[in-house]
Specification:
Blueprint: E1 4-14, E2 51-60
Antiparallel strand pairs: 1-2
Length: about 60
């Protein structure tokens, strides 16, 4: 009789949340590195992406 003999579920995440008092999108933002007066401003900058990964590994007999 054939069927499953192994099931493995994998979950992972990256950059899910940031703990800070900063009220903008991203405390590490730098929209214009060539202008030293604008380093750290998040004007026209996008926040870091969040990554969610799900994997499943099935074994059959």
């Amino acid at each position: 009789m054939s069927g499953f003999n192994r099931v493995q579920l994998e979950l992972s995440g990256f950059n899910l949340f940031t703990i800070t008092d900063y009220t903008g999108f991203d405390p590490e933002a730098a929209s214009d590195l060539n202008d030293p007066t604008r380093i750290g401003l998040d004007q026209y900058a996008f926040p870091n992406s969040r990554i969610f990964q799900v994997g499943i590994n099935l074994g059959f007999q």
